[in-house]
Amino acid sequence: MTAASGRLWVLLPAYNEAENLPPLLEGLSATLAAWPDGAPPCRVVVVDDGSSDGTAAAARSVAGLDVVVLVHDPNQGLGAAMRTGITHVLTHGADDDLLVALDADNTHPTELMPGMVARARAGADIVIASRFQPGAEIHGLDAQRKAISEIASWILRIMFPGARDYTCGYRCYRVALLRWGAEHYGPAFLNQRGFSIMVDILLKLRRQASRIEEVPLILRYDRKLGASKMKVMQTAVTTLRLLGRRFVGNPYGP
Question: What is the model's pTM?
Answer without folding.
Answer: 0.86
